């Protein structure tokens, strides 16, 4: 099974002070896709520079020619399907059809209360996600949409001429629970996971592999229930959140071993973080670029 290698570039740099160069370099290095986080702020980066995902991707689209671009991930925490659809259609047009929307239910981070609301419970997040994704799908595939939902509504919302990619830009649905996996099976062109957070702190890489194997099996069952072949979905692993942490980026051999193990599980795309000094994503830039340019050839 072939494997693609992608990166995620956090929106922490001013565009003219290193931001543009990272996205251009990602294309030069041959990454399949360069993603960014769609947050208002995030964890330890909260008190430092952090720019908006969609404007950053728009700028990246004008600075690159071949590189696919996307979010990992957008969520309902501060987005509405009507306005998001318009922005995505426009971004897909500006990029010439190079956008993937990573989308998830959101979490309890800073985004959860930034608009002044109480943080939603896991069930409330799942309820909203279950309404958000189908409406967004309609908005990106139909010229005019009217819908009355419990959480999200649209009144003759128009998105003409629609996406460059047809019938719409691809959704990469982040999910591990049954409701999210059903959404991935029905609406996703890809599925995204970061592993099992329960074993991040004290688990082992071997336990992580088994947890991921179980997630893929559940995805397969959800696809079967939806009458869909699970092989139709790309399976994306966003690294850095399994017990392996940053070890796969310590050397080319370490990454090749890690990537081969996860390819054999069924993953079709592995995403590695662009190095950021003095952070959880610190890594040697030279090794990172060696992985980008040599790892896939070693995997065969």
| Gross geometry | globular
Strand fraction: 15-25%
Beta-strand segment tally: 10
Runs in which pLDDT lies below 50 for 5 or more consecutive residues are: none
Helix fraction bin: 25-40%
Provide an overview of this structure.
This protein is of the alpha/beta class. About 40% of the residues lie in helices and about 15% in strands. It contains eight helices and ten strands. The strands form two sheets. It has an eight-stranded parallel β-barrel with strand order 1-2-3-4-7-8-9-10, surrounded by six helices. A two-stranded antiparallel ribbon has the order 5-6. Helix 4 runs parallel beside helix 5 (about 180-185). The mean pLDDT is about 95.
Secondary structure: elements and pairs:
Elements (H helix, E strand, L loop, with lengths): L3 E5 L10 H10 L4 E4 L16 H11 L4 E7 L6 H15 L3 E5 L18 H20 L2 E4 L6 E5 L12 E4 L3 H10 L2 E4 L11 H21 L8 E5 L13 H14 L3 E5 L11 H15 L1
Features:
300 residues; alpha/beta; eight-stranded parallel β-barrel; 16% strand
Compact summary:
By secondary structure, the protein is an alpha/beta fold. The chain has helices spanning 19-28, 53-63, 81-95, 122-141, 178-187, 205-225, 252-265, 285-299; strands at residues 4-8, 33-36, 68-74, 99-103, 144-147, 154-158, 171-174, 190-193, 234-238, 269-273.
């Amino acid at each position: 099974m072939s494997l693609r290698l992608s990166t995620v570039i956090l929106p922490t740099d001013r565009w003219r002070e290193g931001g543009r160069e990272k996205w251009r370099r990602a294309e030069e290095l041959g990454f399949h896709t360069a993603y960014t986080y769609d947050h208002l702020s995030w964890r330890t980066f909260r008190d430092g520079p952090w720019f908006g995902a969609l404007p950053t991707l728009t700028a990246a689209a004008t600075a690159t020619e071949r590189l696919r671009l996307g979010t990992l991930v957008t969520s309902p925490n501060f987005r509405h399907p009507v306005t998001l659809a318009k922005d995505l259609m426009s971004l897909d047009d500006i990029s010439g059809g190079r956008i993937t929307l990573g989308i998830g239910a959101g979490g309890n981070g800073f985004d959860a209360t930034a608009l002044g609301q109480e943080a939603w419970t896991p069930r409330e997040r799942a309820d909203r996600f279950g309404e958000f994704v189908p409406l967004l799908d309609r908005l990106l595939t139909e010229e005019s949409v009217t819908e009355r939902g419990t959480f999200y509504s649209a009144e003759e919302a128009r998105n003409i001429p629609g996406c460059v990619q047809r019938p719409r830009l691809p959704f990469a649905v982040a999910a591990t629970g049954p409701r999210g996996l059903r959404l991935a099976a029905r609406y996703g062109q890809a599925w995204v996971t970061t592993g099992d957070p329960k074993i991040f702190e004290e688990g082992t890489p071997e336990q992580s592999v088994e947890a991921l194997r179980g997630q893929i099996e559940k995805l397969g069952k959800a696809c079967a229930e939806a009458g869909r072949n699970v092989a139709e979905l790309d399976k994306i692993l966003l690294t850095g959140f399994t017990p392996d942490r940053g070890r796969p980026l310590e050397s080319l051999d370490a990454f090749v071993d890690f990537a081969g193990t996860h390819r054999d599980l069924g993953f079709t795309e592995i995403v590695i973080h662009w190095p950021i000094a003095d952070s959880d994503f610190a890594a040697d830039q030279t090794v990172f670029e060696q992985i980008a340019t040599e790892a896939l050839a070693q995997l065969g």
